[in-house]
UniProtKB/TrEMBL annotation:
Residues 112-163 form the RNA polymerase sigma factor 70 region 4 type domain. One of its GO terms (molecular function) is DNA binding. One of its GO terms (cellular component) is DNA-directed RNA polymerase complex. One of its GO terms (biological process) is DNA-templated transcription initiation. InterPro entries: RNA_pol_sigma-70-like, RNA_pol_sigma-70_dom, RNA_pol_sigma-E_actinobac, RNA_pol_sigma70_r2, RNA_pol_sigma70_r4_t2, RNA_pol_sigma_r2, RNA_pol_sigma_r3/r4-like, WH-like_DNA-bd_sf. The keyword Transcription regulation applies. Keywords: DNA-binding, DNA-directed RNA polymerase, Sigma factor, Transcription, Transcription regulation. This is DNA-directed RNA polymerase sigma-70 factor. Signal peptide: none annotated. Belongs to the sigma-70 factor family. ECF subfamily. Residues 21-80 form the RNA polymerase sigma-70 region domain.
Amino acid sequence: MGERKDARDEEFQSFMIGRWPRLLRTAFLLTGEQHAAEDLVQTTLEQVFVAWRRVGSADDPEAYTRRVMINAHARRHRRKLKEFLAPKDDSGLVREVPDTGDRIAQADDRSALLRALAQLPPRQREAVVLRYWEDLTETQTAQAMGCSVGTVKSNAAKGIAKLRAIPGLADMVTQGGRN
C-alpha cells in the first residue's frame, strides 16, 4: 500500500510541476494580482491532491483542476461580497513570462489589457479568459464555469463588447494590427 501511495504522490507531483505555469497564468488573469493568483493555485492544488486518486484517473485531469480553480475563485468572491479582487493600479503586478505561442504577449501594452480585464465582472472575465486566452471551446469553458454554453456565449460577448468599448485598448489593437 505504501508503494501505491508513493506512486500516486509522484504522479501528482509530476502533474503539478507540469501544469503550474499555466495554472498560475490563468489564476493571475482571474485575480489580477500575483499573490492572489499564487494563493488560488495553491488552494486548487490542495483540493486536487486530496482527491488525486479520482482526479488522476479522470479522462482530463487538467479540466478537472481548472474547474476546481474556477469554483475556488467564485467562492472567494461570494465570501468577501466583492465583485472583483483587482488592484487599483498595476504597480504591484509581477509580469508573467509569456508562452512562446502566446499572441497576446506580443501586444505593445500588456498592462492596458490587464487593466481592461480587471474592469470586467467576474463571470465575464472568466468567460473571456477561458475562451480567448486559454483557447478553450465553448463546451470546455461551460464545463469549467459550471454553466450552459449559452451562458458562456453571453458572458463572453458582453465581456468582449466591454473590452472593445475601452478607447485605449481599441487603439492598441488597431495599431498592433497595422505593424
